[in-house]
Design brief:
By secondary structure, this protein is mostly helical. The chain is built from 15 helices and two strands. It has a two-stranded antiparallel sheet. A hairpin with a 2-residue loop joins strand 1 and strand 2. Helix 7 (181-208) packs across helix 9 (235-252) and helix 10 packs antiparallel against helix 11. The protein is elongated, with a radius of gyration of 29 Å.
Length: 404
């Protein structure tokens, strides 16, 4: 009838349009009802197949169980996809959709827009979107048995999808031949966004239902992360939160976010922290930013570089060995003279970073940070000012010499 009404021309077109819209609105609840029934049937088949696959273990029927699970999952996704197009799309089109449905369709188009240029990300994110859509309805249903069964499947599948998304970002970031600096910045943003999304939605769910796969140290770090979800965060807070996300990711996504990529992410945060220290004008805030930078240096060297087995450049490996030996000697002071331990550790990190900055080809102007570092070294007695000075480009420059 809708197709026929579009062909009718005459003086009373508005009348037929009104009839068409009314009939469409009447049919929408039926569509939703049919799709809802189909989703329920497909979901039930999926959960049975998933549980059979999980319990198959090493038995002869594991492959058969996996095939049935994959088939049930594919059929379930198709039904969810049809629900979006048949029900939500038509409700939005006819202006009868709720705010939730409007947002759901908007997210759907956001995901499908990736298909042309980012197919791998599209494939994972579309599945994730459809599962989240159904999961939201299940959690609101109050059906405890269904919720418990679905949670087990949901966590398992979401773990796989998030690993796929992060692995795709890792490949892009590691592809130095085709990745420009601006593109890298966008990839870093996506990695941190995805990690936070996982921790908020999946790790939080695992902790809530007391999933036994979570290590105690991960739960402890998650509790620390929760303190960064309250109130307004400044730049320093955001950097610290991202460091925490990376620390958690090293335990949860070792293969999807390998060491080489984690190192690049840390180096990005080190760059941000350096800029924050040199650009902060209020002394107390600058000291807090500096303290965070020192902690970041320690995390970077102890948690990452010390675990690195393969070094592309033998010179870098030898330099790190030398640094690492000095660091271990410094750590021996921790028990006997804590203040001297802190002093020596900061001197070591500052000198090491000064060397890195001078050797790097970075376009960032770190002149203010270098001056700040040198002032710290003078305060610690690791650098001393000489009496004579010289003029350079109109500036009065004091000569410095490393303390004996």
């Amino acid at each position: 009838m809708e197709e026929r009404s579009l062909r009718i021309t005459g003086t009373d077109k508005t009348f037929f349009n009104k009839i068409t819209k009314t009939l469409t609105k009447m049919l929408i609840p039926t569509k939703i009802g049919i799709n809802g029934m189909l989703i329920s049937i497909k979901r039930n088949n999926l959960l049975k197949a998933f549980e059979a696959y999980e319990n198959s273990g090493e038995h002869y029927n594991q492959k058969e169980a996996e095939e049935k699970y994959d088939s049930a999952y594919e059929s379930y996704l198709e039904t969810l996809d049809k629900y979006v197009m048949d029900s939500i799309y038509k409700k939005v089109k006819n202006d009868t959709a709720s705010d939730f449905e409007k947002e759901a369709l908007s997210k759907y188009y956001e995901v499908t827009s990736l298909k042309e240029n980012e197919y791998v990300e599209y494939k994972n994110r579309k599945q994730k979107y459809l599962l989240e859509l159904d999961n939201e309805g299940i959690q609101l249903s109050g059906k405890e048995k269904l919720i418990d069964r679905y949670n087990q499947f949901y966590i398992s599948k979401m773990d796989t999808l998030y690993k796929g998304i992060l692995k795709n970002y890792s490949i892009k970031l590691a592809d130095t031949m085709n990745t420009y600096e601006a593109s890298k910045e966008w990839i870093y943003t996506k990695i941190f966004y995805t990690l936070e999304e996982y921790i908020q939605n999946i790790l939080a769910l695992k902790i809530r239902i007391k999933n036994d796969t979570i290590a105690k140290d991960v739960i402890k770090e998650y509790e620390t992360y929760e303190t960064y979800t309250v109130g307004k965060l400044d730049t320093r807070d955001n950097i610290e939160k991202k460091v925490l996300l990376l620390n958690i990711s090293r335990k949860l996504f070792t293969h999807s976010l390998p060491l080489i990529v984690a190192i690049q992410c840390y180096e990005k945060l080190l760059k941000d922290a350096r800029v924050l220290v040199q650009d902060t004008k209020i002394a107390t805030k600058r000291e807090k930013a500096y303290s965070m930078l020192i902690n970041l240096f320690e995390d970077y060297h102890v948690k990452l570089l010390s675990t690195k087995v393969y070094w592309e450049n033998p010179k870098d490996r030898d330099e790190f060995k030398s640094f690492w030996n000095t660091y271990k000697e410094t750590c021996k002071l921790k028990e006997t003279n804590f203040i001297e331990y802190i002093r020596q550790k900061e001197i070591l990190f500052i000198k090491n970073d000064l060397k890195k900055i001078k050797e790097s080809n970075t376009k960032t102007d770190y002149s203010k940070l270098i001056t700040y570092y040198k002032r710290k070294l003078i305060d610690y007695g690791a650098l001393r000012e000489l009496k004579n000075a010289y003029i350079s480009k109109g500036n009065y420059i004091k000569k410095l010499k490393e303390a004996a």
